Amino acid sequence: MDMIRSDVGSGVMDAVNDDVTAVEQFIPVRSPVARLGSAPAVNRWPGVHAFQVTVYQRLGTPAGRQPPYAYSRAAGKLYTDMLVAVPFRFSYTAVGDPRRLEIRAQPVYLDAQHVQNPVRRCPHHQDAALMSNVQSQHVRHVLQTQHARFRYDENGDRCSVVVPLEPLQPATDHYEVLYEFTCMNTCVGGMNRRRILALFTLEECETGQVLGRQTIEVKVCKCPHRDLKADEKRLGLGRIGDKPDRKRRLTSSPPASCEQRLVVEVDDEEMFRAVTEVRDSMRRYRRRVNPQHGQAPPPGRQ
Amino acid sequence: MDMIRSDVGSGVMDAVNDDVTAVEQFIPVRSPVARLGSAPAVNRWPGVHAFQVTVYQRLGTPAGRQPPYAYSRAAGKLYTDMLVAVPFRFSYTAVGDPRRLEIRAQPVYLDAQHVQNPVRRCPHHQDAALMSNVQSQHVRHVLQTQHARFRYDENGDRCSVVVPLEPLQPATDHYEVLYEFTCMNTCVGGMNRRRILALFTLEECETGQVLGRQTIEVKVCKCPHRDLKADEKRLGLGRIGDKPDRKRRLTSSPPASCEQRLVVEVDDEEMFRAVTEVRDSMRRYRRRVNPQHGQAPPPGRQ
DNA sequence: CAGGCATGCCTG
DNA sequence: CAGGCATGCCTG
Ligand SMILES: [Zn+2]
Ligand SMILES: [Zn+2]
């Protein structure tokens, strides 16, 4: 018999903090790696080109069935199943030659204590993608695009994907790009139930200078419509800017209730969009910087 | 800009059947790998040495708190959290010099349609174990031991761990070995909610001949006591040896009730395996291409 | 697709 | 540790 002797046993062998990725687990707090993974700015900022983004909500599909994603305009939050092509629509003004600009998209953790960690794909879905003989180029990317032209970036572990701006199609006021998410928010060893933002930056190709920045919270889950409704319910008739009163955990943007509200009158759709965008942006920002206003730190429910 | 052109997009890129491991997913039905993963016998058989196994249930711990595992003798089912050292107790008679025998332990899928797949550790916990600088020897093993002497085997992907028999301690009638499980039954990309058995074989060191065989069903979960109670409740006042009769899903393996079923007669074990492989493969294929086909074997609750 | 369960994990 | 929620997924 060729046994191994051991007085220690293997008890301690892999006690792991399941709050985080196996990788994150072993990055010393102030190591160079941690520095690499510094947090990108996420404040919304239309900039001189009035850069905006929203999710296009397809009305009923042919078969009358709901699309596998749902968007809450009030909360600025997308709910989608994974591997679903979701149409994002960008708007911008006065860009001159659009070809000098591009849009970078990347997932970012929403909560302050995770925002400095790059959003990594979970080991299971990486494996699955690798096995499925497809190009292994994007395997590590949680946020991918189905756009015709694209470029995947991996700055350290901070993955992003870039698409070029194009001249708008005639008679359109937006530029549509399909993105899909390749992990669930719940993926163990990946996002691990942490909330994320999709961060979009309008950048100058040559210099990389950021000319505008927008975000949309994303929840990648199996029942987008259920979860959207659940969030709305949870938020009850929450007052504007009020904190969600979850008994457990969770954030989400409180939709406005209709009585006793301060309102801003707008003139048309476009204006409505712009205004709500700003409002929602502010709401989110507040929730982020003000602990009172929402979530607590680590994982938790979303 | 260094964009890539693609008319295809990445939509199909990693559509994956989440029913199974990424690895299992891409094993051609009749590949050598699939053959390697043939199913071990699991029928209980005390043999000439009256080989038996049970789980020792420690009474209340010092602090009066429950141990992180629970054992249902009636169901022959262990409920345990992962990474918990569970005391298994073996009994046997008339072995002569015990040093000529050893006990092999391995996890095996309980359900017929998975039994031929080796139980693999999930990618997340493999990663976690690798990162935690510990010996990488056991990283792939779901079933590990804390016994002083041990030997890890990887026959293809069929992992097992062997401990030598020893002379019984004076005044004892059992041989206690601590085992621990390093993945949850729910681990995605691993057991993936499939039920497992811990299979113990009493073997002759020299020849490898099996002299006895016992099994205990194991559920590795976060709330062993809750889940044990839930099973008992589900079973009503369950008969001995009965397994949980869930209203939802769970076992599958239709016991040979040959009434009104189309059956394919086969001649032997090997043929049985080959045929079920093909059938299951077809079921999976149909579910993939035809969402209607919700039914069929795979995971299920336990 | 709605209803509902199983189960990891968060809250007291 | 008990209570209970969130969420993937199974059943009609
Ligand atoms: Zn994933
Ligand atoms: Zn695992």
Automatic annotation (TrEMBL), chains A, B:
<dbReference type="GO" id="GO:0000978">
    <property type="term" value="F:RNA polymerase II cis-regulatory region sequence-specific DNA binding"/>
</dbReference>
<dbReference type="InterPro" id="IPR008967">
    <property type="entry name" value="p53-like_TF_DNA-bd_sf"/>
</dbReference>
<keyword id="KW-0539">Nucleus</keyword>
<keyword id="KW-0238">DNA-binding</keyword>
<feature type="binding site">
    <location>
        <position position="183"/>
    </location>
    <ligand>
        <name>Zn(2+)</name>
    </ligand>
</feature>
<dbReference type="InterPro" id="IPR002117">
    <property type="entry name" value="p53_tumour_suppressor"/>
</dbReference>
<dbReference type="InterPro" id="IPR012346">
    <property type="entry name" value="p53/RUNT-type_TF_DNA-bd_sf"/>
</dbReference>
<protein>
    <submittedName>
        <fullName>Tumor protein p73</fullName>
    </submittedName>
</protein>
<feature type="compositionally biased region" description="Basic and acidic residues">
    <location>
        <begin position="235"/>
        <end position="245"/>
    </location>
</feature>
<feature type="region of interest" description="Disordered">
    <location>
        <begin position="235"/>
        <end position="256"/>
    </location>
</feature>
<comment type="similarity">
    <text>Belongs to the p53 family.</text>
</comment>
<dbReference type="GO" id="GO:0006915">
    <property type="term" value="P:apoptotic process"/>
</dbReference>
<keyword id="KW-0053">Apoptosis</keyword>
<keyword id="KW-0010">Activator</keyword>
<feature type="binding site">
    <location>
        <position position="125"/>
    </location>
    <ligand>
        <name>Zn(2+)</name>
    </ligand>
</feature>
<dbReference type="Pfam" id="PF00870">
    <property type="entry name" value="P53"/>
</dbReference>
<dbReference type="GO" id="GO:0000981">
    <property type="term" value="F:DNA-binding transcription factor activity, RNA polymerase II-specific"/>
</dbReference>
<dbReference type="GO" id="GO:0046872">
    <property type="term" value="F:metal ion binding"/>
</dbReference>
<keyword id="KW-0479">Metal-binding</keyword>
<dbReference type="GO" id="GO:0005634">
    <property type="term" value="C:nucleus"/>
</dbReference>
<feature type="region of interest" description="Disordered">
    <location>
        <begin position="281"/>
        <end position="302"/>
    </location>
</feature>
<dbReference type="InterPro" id="IPR011615">
    <property type="entry name" value="p53_DNA-bd"/>
</dbReference>
<feature type="domain" description="p53 DNA-binding">
    <location>
        <begin position="43"/>
        <end position="234"/>
    </location>
</feature>
<keyword id="KW-0862">Zinc</keyword>
<keyword id="KW-0805">Transcription regulation</keyword>
<feature type="binding site">
    <location>
        <position position="122"/>
    </location>
    <ligand>
        <name>Zn(2+)</name>
    </ligand>
</feature>
<feature type="binding site">
    <location>
        <position position="187"/>
    </location>
    <ligand>
        <name>Zn(2+)</name>
    </ligand>
</feature>
<keyword id="KW-0804">Transcription</keyword>
